[in-house]
Amino acid sequence: MDATHAIETPASAVGAVSILRVIANDLDPIFTALNLQPLAVGQIRLASLLGLDDALIARFDHHSLLVMPHGGIGITRAISQAFIALGIELAQPSDPQTMYPEAEDIHEARMLQALASAPSPAAVDVLLDQPARWRLSPNTESLADSSVLNRLLVPPLVVVVGRANIGKSSLVNALAGTSVAMVSDLAGTTRDHVGVMLDLSGLAVRWVDTPGIDERVVVGEELDLAAPVIRAADLIVHAVDHSVNHSVNHKTPTGELDPRLASLIGSSASILRVGVRSDLGPIASPVECSCSSHTGQGIETLATTINHRLIPPQALADPRPWRFWDS
Asked: Which domain holds residue 53?
């Protein structure tokens, strides 16, 4: 089938609605393949899509179709895979000026393309200002730090490590404002790493909660599962319990990681030490911030601290152009 599709909303983020654009010279075979009644240009209709979801189907020109299902990651991927199975291949991103003919120039077109898929609210103001910056400073000799600002477009990886049963799963639930991680009083409950996308003061991050490891826990495949994400992390959050000094049978010095975990973290890794369960007593060793998942105290401060560690405020305030596109 001579047709392609593109995912025009962030493919790795949850939203109310996702948008997939199907492009073909002749849309009639597309309607047949998707078991949809044909739409005239300017029409929009709610329809069942391949038994996967109910979606809004819209046609605004002769050669493209917008498919707008619910914005779950799994639903979006399943529909994309179903399109591929029907011969509607996944296309590379379109030329920005072709996609956004209303743009004044290539700078504005690139900005609109990036803005459509930016997962972080904090990206909006910075992106909106880019066309003007590039028009004023078109040379590439002095640019803002892309290695930092690109985290506004590709959520950085934050990995939480620490002892078992000290509230790491409760911490992610508190940051998310809902239950996203399994919580239990049994040591070693999080046997695999649990990942979730979080908005931390305007910055979208991929948050991974690794299994708690200390001498009470017999480590099997947990360490092997945690190793790749720990090594790939943009930031390691070392959760330190208030009660480490008072726990029994701890052979590792107070506030330090189990050696098996510490060996996975390189010397150059960015580490943020966070005291958890601060409502139960003073934190046993020096930390950069402390919080309580139970009372909510310090949770907003922690979110802001992580945000600023990953994207320092001075990077957002940098007036120089930012090269925010791939090619």
From this structure: 3-90
